[in-house]
Amino acid sequence: MTGAGGMLGSDLLAVLGGQAGARVTVTTRADLDVTDAAAVKAAVAGHDLVVNAAGWTDVDRAEACEAEAAEVNGTAVANLATACAATGARLLHVSTDYVFAGDGREPYPEDHPTAPVNAYGRGKLAGEQAVARLLPGDGYVVRTAWLYGEHGRNFVTTMLRLAAERDTLEVVDDQHGQPTWSYALAGRLVALGDAALAGRAPAGIYHGTASGRTTWYGLARAVFGLRGLDPDRIRPTTSERFVRPAARPAFSVLRHDRWRLAGLPPMADWHEQLTEALSGDWPAPH
């Protein structure tokens, strides 16, 4: 597994640690340079399944450093896919909703045409295309979105921090998506990997997001409510008030049809996931 030091990677380690008899090799950015094809080839040798949780995740910085971001999110994925193809290993690669334009009105199916609106999305799409080209029968792409978790900087932890610093918060209410708990996604990735190794899951694209939908404003209110804080401290605003270097998709709601082909149900509703996530030892409310 690559990216073991990140938010999702940390949760993958926790899930895999509960699997009896699982033999897992983990690498962090310090252990493996995924842009080094020779190093990747050596690291993949002897493994049946490779989970790629590594990636360039700074969406705004990617606008100024597109070549570097594309190397990590695109070229490095091609390195992994090439190494897997050479040994017969399966590759499970984590991608993003940012491969879509975000101008839809209905949830995007897995085969919807892609049209990224920023540098980050273009790099991630290149990674997806590398998996499809090099591993048509053994490559799995799982697109996720609005990911949050205990082991990294994300929207939920930011809301909990800002709750202690400000009386009120303005949060955009015109971007729609599916907040997804990284621990829940980690469990789904492990289940998909098991199904892939058992020959029960067809290769291709899967959408790894929570069911249901909300806005960032709706998510912020839910976070406050679940922590016993006053949700009315959250005020709605528009994306125009928060201009960022990278354009954000306004609509990031995904369909989950292909899970049934792997014998797996769609992931739980976003509010159910959030409720379970915040029942743990997250930062105390203020």
From TrEMBL:
Which keywords does the record carry? NADP, Oxidoreductase
- Residue ranges of domain RmlD-like substrate binding in the record: 1-278
Which pathway is this protein assigned to? Carbohydrate biosynthesis; dTDP-L-rhamnose biosynthesis
GO annotations of cellular component type: cytosol
Q: Which GO molecular function annotations are given, in alphabetical order?
A: dTDP-4-dehydrorhamnose reductase activity
Keyword Methyltransferase annotated: no
Question: Which major enzyme category is it?
Answer: oxidoreductase
Q: Which superkingdom is the protein from?
A: Bacteria
Is Cytoplasm included in the keywords of this UniProt record? no
Which terms under GO biological process does the entry name? Answer: dTDP-rhamnose biosynthetic process
**Which SUPFAM superfamilies does the entry mention?**
NAD(P)-binding Rossmann-fold domains (SSF51735)
**UniProt-listed Enzyme Commission number(s):** 1.1.1.133
Matching NCBIfam families: rmlD
Q: Which family does it belong to?
A: Belongs to the dTDP-4-dehydrorhamnose reductase family.
Q: What does this protein do?
A: Catalyzes the reduction of dTDP-6-deoxy-L-lyxo-4-hexulose to yield dTDP-L-rhamnose.
**Per its record, how is this protein called by name?**
dTDP-4-dehydrorhamnose reductase
Q: Which organism is it from?
A: Polymorphospora rubra
Taxonomy, top ranks, is: Bacteria, Bacillati, Actinomycetota, Actinomycetes, Micromonosporales
